[in-house]
Amino acid sequence: MAQCAECKLNFSNKSNLKVHVKRIHPDKLDQLCPRKRKPFGSGAVECKECGNKFTRHGNLRSHIKQKHSDKCEELLARSNTKEFILCEECGNQLHSLGLLKKHKESHKIKTIIQIKCLLCNYVGGSRDILIAHYNNVHNFKIENETHEFDSFEAFQSWKSKMESETFSSFIHKRTNRKNQAAVKIEYYCHRSGYFKARGANIRHLKTQGSNKINGYCPANVKVVLKNGRYFANYCKTHVGHKLEEDVSHIFLMKTERDQIATIIIGSNVPLQITLNEIHFKDVSIEQKR
Hints:
Layout: E1 2-3, E2 10-11, H1 14-24, H2 29-32, E3 45-46, E4 53-54, H3 57-67, H4 72-79, E5 85-86, E6 93-94, H5 97-104, E7 115-116, E8 123-124, H6 127-136, E9 144-149, H7 152-166, E10 170-179, E11 182-189, E12 220-226, E13 229-235, H8 254-265, H9 271-281, H10 283-288
Antiparallel strand pairs: 1-2, 3-4, 5-6, 7-8, 9-13, 10-11, 11-12, 12-13
């Protein structure tokens, strides 16, 4: 069991906690999920004469020359003796499993990413190329806005309001951390991408169909944390789906889910009757359902 020290939510394991922190508290990742450092001696090299351990072979060689100069050649020869690991595909010999794993990447067939235009049969090699295609061929003006926030909570509040007003939803894609003071968080339209069937296909697809539009929607939000402030670039143009028709594909906000859960838990009324009351009383929830 792992608990978030910021919002006191419990998770079944540390991996789930880390995913939660990356999404909700990305600016406190190092504080809430500190990286484990290997204790000294794990993976270290040892002097065969006195047993001292060093993190690098270079440090071991310097130690041997200074402390065991009378046995320098013998000890250096023993410290340089390494076992080789054979690559089964090409016969190359490597010093470690890490190097072997990296070497094996060269044997993999690299697939070229192809992104399909949702308005014609054109296929581009990158998102930037496809956006240029939307502009030049289909006269789609890709509109961007910039916003600045004092805190991540203020950004989340703006994002929730924007999603509610535009009937859209942006999902967390990745977090790039250059250093403690520079963090980049990316969100993409939840309808962008390709539907991938999972499992044995026993269950039928949802009545309204998959959320994915089998193509690339350029709408996104990219947030950069710099010098304690959050700078958001918001690409507001959606392609391949109409926002006013996306109501059945939109998730309820967390506040709305919590509101429904509170009503259900605190009531002894049958579930269906409770849901019907919610639909009548809360217009915003009714519209999104």
